[in-house]
């Protein structure tokens, strides 16, 4: 939570979802640290953020953090110092991640599309827009949908036979795809949602890989010693400063 608040206060776009921000920065949070033991259940925290990521009045955004932080105890100054030190040298221009909202639709997955894949990192692994995707890349995503494997095999065969490449799916009429594949309602709904989302998806690596490498891929985190003796020494140095 401390890391999330510290990063959120650096972002000017109030509508940016907290769940998206957390997914971008969680790889930078030290995994082995005595302070981590103070966290209750990180899985429950991630589940809560995911549930609050759906677009609507209950979606948690950076704007909520900005409004509520002044009413709380805020971050302990010493914890803020540790976090800031940990971020030094990791090149984290967070503002550039949301500075162009008109072209960042791919980064703002929300609503039902957010639940298409159990592993949310699949979205981050998409490196090309739909129009440039090969048939094999489309089929790899289809196989990750919540559809029984025996049916995804049939869907893959039909899509291969019809040569439904990324270029085709980005330009054709979806009713024609439905007529060609003849899927049941549930399977077609999932596939249709995937296609519609990919049509507006802007791959992160195309837009921001150069500007925000530390947010989109795991980066080495500076080691911070938080043993009792070390923390006392660092606090003493902070007092002297």
UniProtKB/TrEMBL annotation:
Residues 128-200 form the Kinase D-interacting substrate of 220 kDa-like SAM domain. Pfam families: SAM_KIDINS220. InterPro entries: Neurotrophin_sig_adaptor (IPR052771), SAM_KIDINS220 (IPR057092). GO terms for molecular function: PDZ domain binding; protein kinase regulator activity. This is CBS domain-containing protein. It comes from Onchocerca flexuosa.
């Amino acid at each position: 939570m401390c890391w999330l608040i510290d990063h959120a206060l650096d972002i000017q776009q109030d509508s940016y979802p907290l769940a998206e921000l957390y997914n971008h920065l969680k790889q930078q949070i030290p995994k082995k640290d005595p302070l981590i033991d103070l966290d209750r259940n990180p899985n429950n925290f991630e589940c809560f953020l995911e549930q609050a990521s759906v677009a609507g009045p209950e979606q948690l955004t950076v704007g909520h953090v900005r409004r509520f932080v002044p009413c709380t105890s805020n971050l302990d100054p010493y914890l803020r110092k540790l976090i800031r030190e940990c971020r030094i040298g990791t090149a984290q221009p967070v503002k550039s991640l949301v500075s162009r909202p008109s072209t960042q639709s791919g980064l703002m997955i929300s609503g039902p599309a957010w639940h298409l894949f159990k592993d949310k990192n699949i979205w981050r692994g998409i490196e090309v827009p739909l129009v440039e995707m090969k048939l094999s890349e489309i089929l790899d995503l289809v196989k990750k949908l919540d559809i029984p494997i025996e049916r995804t095999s049939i869907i893959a065969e039909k899509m291969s036979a019809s040569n439904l490449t990324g270029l085709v799916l980005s330009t054709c009429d979806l009713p024609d795809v439905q007529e060609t594949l003849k899927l049941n309602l549930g399977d077609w709904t999932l596939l249709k949602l995937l296609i519609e989302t990919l049509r507006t998806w802007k791959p992160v690596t195309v837009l921001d890989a150069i500007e925000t490498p530390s947010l989109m891929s795991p980066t080495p985190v500076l080691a911070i010693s938080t043993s009792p003796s070390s923390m006392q020494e660092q606090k003493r140095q902070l007092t002297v400063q």
